[in-house]
Amino acid sequence: QDAKKFWEEYGRSKLRSESVPQGLGESWRPWRLGGLFCLAVATVIVAGCGEPAPQEVVVYTALDEEFSKPIFDAFTRQTGIEVRARFDTESTKTVGLAEAIRAERDRPRCDLFWNNEALHTLRLAREGLLRPYASPLAIEYPAEVQADDGVWYGFAARARVLIVNTNLVSESRRPKSIRDLTDVQWADRVGIAKPLFGTTATHAACLFAALGEDEAKDLFQRIKGNARIMSGNKKVAQAVAAGNLYFGLTDTDDAMIEIEAGRPVTIIYPDQEPDPATGKPLGTLFIPNTLALIKGSANPQAANTLVDYLLSAKTESRLAMGPSAQIPLNKNAAQPARVETPETVTAMEVDFAAAAAAWETAREFLLQEFTAAK
C-alpha cells in the first residue's frame, strides 16, 4: 500500500508542478519571478549567517530517469541530501557512464554509480575504481548478488524475457527458448537489441560463461542471421507491440510497459524445459541493478546513506510497484504479482564475476559480428 501511494502521489505532484494557478494568467510570470528574487535574497542572507552548505551526492544513473528520479526525490525529502543525477541515452547509457567514471578516475565527479545491469559494474571493480562499503542492509540480500568485499551490491532485478505479439502468434506456436530466435520459420520476424550495451551485453557475457565460447558464438551468429538487430530493448518491445515483429528478446520492465498499456502482447519466461544436452533447464536470466561507490569521490558519507536507502525493503517495494516492475531481491520487500521472480520460475545459474571475465572475449567477437548489423 505504501508503494502504491508513493507512485500515485508522485503522479499528482508532477501534475501540480506543471500547472499554472487558475485565474492568474500572464500575471503568474512576474509573481513567480518576484518570488524567485526574494528567495535568492533570503538564500544569500542565510548563507551569510554561517549556515552549513546543504549536503549533496552525485549519482550516475543508468536506470531510466522516469523510474529513478521519484526515488531520488523521496530520498531528498527524507534526508535533506540533494541528489545530482546524470542520465544517458537509451542504447549506450551504461557504457557511456562507465567510460565517464574511467575518464574521471584522477578527479572523480561521481559518488555513486547506479547501473541497471551488472557487467560494467564488475569491470569497474576489476579496474580498482570502486571502494568498499559494509552496508547493514547486505544481510537482507542473497550472497550471489553482492561482492564479497562490498564494492558492489545488486538489487531490484529484471528478467530477460521473450515478448510475443498474441495477435500474430497463437498460443500453441509461442517460443519457449532464446534459441527460438534462430528458428528459420521466424526469419526477419523476431528481434534482439544489439548485444554490445546494457542488459543484452550482460546477457551475452553470461551466455559465454555458461555455455562456453564455441556454443555462445554459434548461438549469436545464428541469431544475427535470423533476427532484426535493434538499438535497444525498448525498441524491441515496441516493435512487437506494434506488430512489426512476432516476438523478441527484451527486459521485463520494457515488456510490462507494453502490457499495461493494453497492447496485444504477453511475456514468456524462456528456457524452463530441460535442455537435451544437459538434462536441465538453462533458465531465465535475472539481472539486478547494481550500486557501486566510486573511490576518491567528494561525498562518501552521503553516498553511503543513499546506498542504504536504495537497498531498503521500502525502496525495493516501490520499484516493484512502479512502472518499471522491478523484481525485489531484499527478503523483506513486498513481492509483486505482476512479474515472475527467481522463486516462481527456474532462474539461470550465473556467476557474474565469471561473466565479467568472459566479456573481453565476447566483446571482441560481438563487435565483429554486430557493429554493422541493422
Give structural notes:
With 374 residues, this protein is α/β, with parallel strands linked by helices. Helix content is 42%, strand content 15%. The chain has helices at residues 2-17, 28-48, 65-79, 93-103, 119-126, 198-211, 213-226, 233-241, 252-260, 300-310, 313-321, 352-370, and strands at residues 56-61, 82-86, 112-115, 130-131, 153-165, 190-193, 228-230, 247-251, 265-268, 286-294. Strands 1, 2, 3, 4, 5, 6, 7, 8, 9 and 10 form a ten-stranded mixed beta sheet that branches. β1 (56-61), α3 (65-79) and β2 (82-86) form a beta-alpha-beta unit. α6 (198-211) crosses α7.
Write the layout of secondary structure elements.
Elements: H1 2-17, H2 28-48, E1 56-61, H3 65-79, E2 82-86, H4 93-103, E3 112-115, H5 119-126, E4 130-131, E5 153-165, E6 190-193, H6 198-211, H7 213-226, E7 228-230, H8 233-241, E8 247-251, H9 252-260, E9 265-268, E10 286-294, H10 300-310, H11 313-321, H12 352-370
Parallel strand pairs: 1-2, 1-3, 6-7, 6-8
Antiparallel strand pairs: 3-10, 4-10, 5-8, 5-9, 5-10
